Amino acid sequence: MKREVDPKRQKRYLQTIHSETVRLAELINDILEIQKGEDSTHGTQKELLDLKQLMFEMKPMFDLASLAHRISVHFSPGSYTISASSEKMKQLFTNLIMNAIKYSPEGGEIRIKGSNQSDQLRIEISDEGLGIPEKALPYIFDKFYRADNSDTRKIGGTGLGLAICRMIVLDHGGAISVQSTEGEGSTFIIQLPLDA
Fold first, then answer.
1. Domain assignments of the chain as residue spans, ordered by start
2. Which of these, 29, 68, 76, 183, could form a disulfide with 107 (CB 3.0-4.6 Å)?
3. Using CA atoms in the order 112, 133, 91, 120, what is the torsion angle rounded to 10 degrees?
């Protein structure tokens, strides 16, 4: 602000300011989301929701998110109706699939698989990306935790996305876990109770 800057450098500075502003806005939104989830007076409005239908409706958005990735969706026969918030389920799966894209910088296939197991449904989201170091696996759903290695350090993030995913799944009476091999990819597994 105190000196003249040539247009090329000015544009570079503005791009940095813009990207940092977006990052801060995402961080604030994530913190607010965590706070809402931790506030016991805040209840999520749930309704009957067909998760299989929701996933196929969201697929075109995921296809457009990256040209370097192939997104495949496969559901075994059966009912996928749960009592859930449509918005929260969209947020959950957007977080997980955008993470799969982000942490697979070389591209590859991202597989979304659904199966029906008596009183529960199971959704698996697998990628062929960087994977998660074994020592990081116990902490991956903790707030502000980010697996720290030379590959992931270059990839931005707030360290709140997976904590929010865990919060959403727990609020719906389910469980979330991860299986991963460093250098080979990760599979996130969500189990949710089927509506009686």
1. 45-193
2. 68
3. 50
